[in-house]
Protein 1
Amino acid sequence: MTTSLRTVVAILLTIGSITAQAQQKFSAAHIGFVYPISTNGKLARYYTNAFSLHAIAGMSYAEKSFCASGISSYVFNNADGIMLAGFSNHVRNEMNGVQAAGFMNTVRNHVRGVQAAGFLNIAGSINGVQAAGFANLAFDSIKGIQAAGFLNICIAGVDGLQGAGFMNIATDIEGMQVAGFINTAGKVKGVQIAGFINIADSSDYPIAPVNIIGNGQKSLGITTYDGFTHMATFRSGGRVMYGLVGAGFHNYARTLLYAAEAGLGAHLRITKKLRVNIEGSSTSYTDFTDEVYLKSSLRIMPAYNIGNRLEVFAGPAINHVHGEDYNGSEISRNYLWSHHEWGYFNGIYLGFAAGMHFHL
């Protein structure tokens, strides 16, 4: 670029800056009905206001303290303080403080504080809290809390808590991911808790019946409980925590019962080949007619790896049985404690679990 061209560019930029500054206006209070019917009129988009109040909708360059609209507010630069709207708030740069709307909030860049909406929040990055009745979307990182009734999405990492009624999505997690159904993430340094499934590239502490972890472990196996319940099981998880699901049958009672199981477990590594698996599970038994009861179990099972794929295990268990009438009472002949009252049976007995896994 020649010297003369540089000079022309510098002059143009200076003129643009002076013009922009000349357009900037300041108002202690901005009162209006709907743009441009307000105290700032057609030039409202060039005003920075200390206080704004609009019956329907308002527009401004920046807000410094308080902004409220019956329907919607639009700010071309930054909003500081409190921003309220019955339907939606929109900030093209940064929001510092509290942004709350009945339906939707959008901030193009950074939010420092709280962004709360009845339905949807969209922001660049969050340092604070993003909360919505349905969904939150952050295009950059989150430091704090992202909470939604249905779905959270963070394109970058979350340093804090991501909680949703159905699903969380994030690149990386440092903290906790909690969802009613599914969590997905890249690298997790912390805990994933889901009602059904966790998915991650790496996660040592996934807590769900099913966990698909890139650097974790998945296994199919056969397990027998007390010698009478036989289950095909799937165990999956990370280095420490894992989940289990299973299905099978029970052949001790008068009729054949079908069984379904779900639970959580933890690995305690002893040596390279030997570890102890501690599991808590709930198993439902039924013949799909009259017989139905629930068994809750806590098991401690030493496990030994044979080669790279096969693991055998066995250990004691303490079980609690609950069923209507006397359903479940026949699962054991040696109850440590049992009680029948008000049409329900409860009992506690000692048992065992044994089986083998094939690591996938």
Protein 2
Amino acid sequence: MKQFTQPILFLALFLLACSVESNAQDPRFSQYYASPWNLNPALNGVFNGKWRATVNYRDQWGSILSPVPFRTYAAAFEHRLQVGYGDDYASFGLGAMHDEAGTARFSQNKVQLGGAFLKQLSGGRRQADHYLSAGAQLGFGQNSIDWGKLWFSRQFDSGTETPNTSLPSNEPNANAQSKGYLDFNAGLLWYAVFENEGFFYLGGAMHHLNKPKISLIEDDNETLYTRVTGHAGGQFPINDQVSLLPGVLVMSQGPAFETDLGLNLRYSNNDYNELALRAGAWARIGNQLEKGLQADAITIVGMLELNRWMLGLSYDITISPLATANNSRGAFEVSLTYFHPGEKRSRVVCPNF
């Protein structure tokens, strides 16, 4: 266990530095480890195989907002190439996200191109493989509202005592939507993979470095806060079949802060056609602006790994004061990942998130 001492010390110092001014407003997934494209650009290409395809779906607060709950859709594709004759890699990919919220269908749409370079720092036979990955994403985004779903006081018909959307609203910004904007993200990731297939990773990312303008009104003064993310975790084998996968995520964006931490337990049959099961629980803590930090939800996770596929299902159980309104029914989430094998079988050099 001595080889873990230095990374754990580095992790503690890193998280302490992040927590000084940490905050989150972007759409996010409880299964953040199953949505690497949206977590850290440096995770582009951190997998074993030739290419990876990922899709994610989240449905939140359907119990109190039905039939218009908050919904988030995401998809990404990454292709990895070996560089030279060593164990360095370059990866390129494309990702997209659509998020919608509320009766007016406030929507955020993003499409991004990304790339990363994975440099082997050390490794070899009977040695841990240490890698450093640096990645970046450049994308296009736009926010909008379906104004047809809204009505205003001028459209209230006093005769029928009902809204009449055929009447003019006389709202100066009706039908406005944000202009298309460029978005730039960057991140770093260090990880080590050990002989027993255990691994440890530590990463950080900054999204919206250019602070794009996202105003829905004509003044065009509203900008998107930069999001700062720190995350760490690993896989620690107990025996040949059972492993522990702990993790922690810290996010800061403007006035908002969130941290997720928890543990998945993984069982594998260690066969050539590998079948593995995961189950775990995660806690989410966030700030309530002036009221400080409070526990928000407990996420129960179940995942199935079958050869090249990984399917994840999770449910958020609300434990904040909102539980009184939604009877603790928070969000449902599903993730699906496919790993296409490389042209030749090689030893494991990447974590299996």
Protein 3
Amino acid sequence: MKLTKDELAEILEELSKHRGRHTELITVYISEGFDVNSVQKQLGAEKSTAKNIKSAATRKNVIDALEKIVRYLKTLKKTPENGLGVFAGNVSKVEGQSDLQLWIVEPPQPVKVRLYRCDKKFVLEPLREQLEVDEVFGLLVMDRKEATIGLLEGKRIEVLHKMTSGVPSQIRAGGQSSQRFGRIIEGLTKEFYKRIADEMKKVFFSRKKLKGILVGGPIPTKDEFLDGEYMVTQLREKVIGRKDIGGSDESGLKELVEKAQDILSQQEIIAEKKVLERFFRTLGENPDMAALKEPDTKQALDYGAVDVLLLSKSLKKSVSNPLKEIAKNIGSTIEIISIDTDEGQQFKNLGGIGAVLRFRV
């Protein structure tokens, strides 16, 4: 079952505490859509290689962990929708004793990497990136020569499409007027902008989790493109920022993301504020359709009446985890509210537990 962002954070916290005495903790990432049977064969080959490990204890721990992972993978008919992170190893703190553990992580977002690693610690970075943001952001960097369209998921930048304009930087007039060549260049530039807009529509228009679009480039070019309204209205309305940058290739995408950190941080705050606004509005205008504090919220959960469960990040796990488990079982949306905003502090001061209901209890 896919984990929530909060559940993933808890597992990563646990995994990060374990250290092997030698390179004997095994990490396996299976990317979305990759054949799980191929991974089994790869691990079988790794098991044969592990037989050459000189230390008897390390050799046993590695082989045991590999066998445990393979046994689990054989129970799968196919790779889960978002791929898998699999972690196994002897995590006993007492030398000479065995505590062979296996963790299976089906993350909230697709795994994009395939990896096998045997090390003193588990490789967690591909999953940590998923804790950054739930949404994705479209990226465009451009000048009159080229454009690169990309996607930002967490901290990972993916290049989706590269384009060149064919607009010459300098044309010799050859006896003809410079004005005419200027018009030709302008015409080619506009055609390039239209092609960029068409490609943006192809890759972003139907993307449900697209939170916003960032555009970067030299001062006149990006502004000509945006102000000229080449993009369809739905995408223009998703432009959350434009930044002056020099690059129009993959390095430009990285520069754009770096310069837009203030905008990206604000987006998460805005999303959280909207959740709290809905909760407080419901509590004030239609109190029968909201629950506040633990007893009423727990009762609403038990009745299956919770549409959105709100939990303050300040709560102890012993309090929040049982509520999250019930919410998960009844298909509720779970929102973890930070204490970084005035609204978040207000919610914390009210007990840090609340819900918007599907029906009255």
Protein 4
Amino acid sequence: MRFSIWLGTEQTWDELLGSALQAERTGWDGIWVADHFMPNGERSLMPRLEAWTTIAALAARVDRVRVGVLVTGNTYRHPAVLAKMAATVDHISDGRLVLGLGAGWQVNEHEAYGIELPAVGERLARLDEACQVIRLLHSEERSNFEGRFYRLVDAPCEPKPIQRPLPLLVGGSGEKTTMRIAARYADEWNCWGLPDLMAHKSEVLERHCLEIGRDPASIRRSAQALLLMSEDAEQLKSWRSDNPVTPRIVGTASQVREVMGRYAEIGIDEFVVSDHALGRGAGQKRENMDRFVDEVAIHLQNRSGS
């Protein structure tokens, strides 16, 4: 099983880079950043680094781990432009990029920047076409495509990515359409969820694969939930008294190991730890990153497969 760290882009560049370099040194398998221009909700002035320029810089500075955007909002960039960006970052990283892609959703970003946010059905149709466009550009010498939303005319994409194919991760939990898109095009699929939910979602993904004649084992699966780990009984009690919307894992190191073992049992290949729940300040976050590796991840990682 792989374990990756999801670094918040509201940090300064120096803080984010320091955590990324520590992740590389201490045994993490991957580094992700989110594709958002501002916090959700009110139009906050909190600084936030742009995802793709950040991941390109990380690719040049961090030498071992996989890097990626979890996930790129398809509404923000034309997929042909994104295909070119991804091929470039794959070269910068010497073949360590994962191209994460989703339909896009955050309303206030689209409103603030005047970016069109179509209805859900159209966003998903655009995501489907975007996957086709990216696959074509990364595989064909010249690409032609006539879709409802995107068009290619004798389009090149050179240099091609180092990885052939470049891993495409589709993120989302919608069982009817999003996961069908993942079954059709993705090398990896990602979803928020605790083990029981992920087991159900994996069964849905497998059904979609079987319907289109694809081997379900050809798609890697990854999950994330906020991680709150402590040996302090009172602290755990306080965390458990909350009623959060976002999935959370709350427990001692041994309890967290049990949950991670359950993810592994149901076929989850990668667990992504968000640094948002690891404390305040770079020092506390990095201390908790090390604790997770030393007390949890090291017991479940397959180093030959990372």
